Amino acid sequence: MSFGEKIWKSLFSSDVYILISAFLTVLCLLLVRYYNKKTKKEINIFEHEKNISYTTHIYNWLTASYTLFITAISIFPLLGMFGTVKALLELDLSNINNAKNNFFDALTSTTWGIIFSISFKIVNAFISTSVENNIQKLANLIKKFEDSGISLKDSKNENKRRRAVK
């Protein structure tokens, strides 16, 4: 079995927790992408309708999903180190084959932690400016609404009235 095959196989066995974390990080990324696109597309509508409730909702989801995404990126090297320590603690020097396998598991978890961290950092480099700009636009819009006397309570009452009319 080649090195590439061994490391790939480890992702689905001893390093499955890193694979699960990568899946959850992709879900966070998809949420960020969805709310970021929604903000770009509808920012003018948010301002025109003066719906502070919906604007605040989008702001909260975009901010939360982006924060989770950034946090998940920083966790991958720690997960790699966790796998390394776990495999080394299970090291049994009385059985040389077991020792080789545990040492290889230690190295693969570090490798996967680095690979996923770097990959998601590159993705973040492409989206961070747009997301941070949209978060700032939404925050400014919410402040503008509040400064003009539009409250969250008023906005919710307006939403109920619109639904009743339909």
Tell me the number of helical segments per DSSP (H or I, 4 or more residues long).
5
Domain module tally: 1
The count of β-strands is: 0
Rounded mean pLDDT is 87
- The gyration radius over C-alpha positions equals 23 Å
Helix proportion of residues, in percent?
Answer: over 70%
Q: Which overall shape is indicated by the principal axes computed on the Cα atoms?
A: rod-shaped
Unreliable sequence segments: none
Please identify the structural class as seen in this structure. Answer: mainly alpha
Report strand %.
under 5%
Give the helices and strands as they follow along the chain. Answer: HHHHH
Largest sheet, strands/sense/barrel: none
Please report the distance between the alpha carbons of the first and last residues. Answer: 65 Å
Which terms summarize this structure?
mainly alpha; single chain; 166 residues
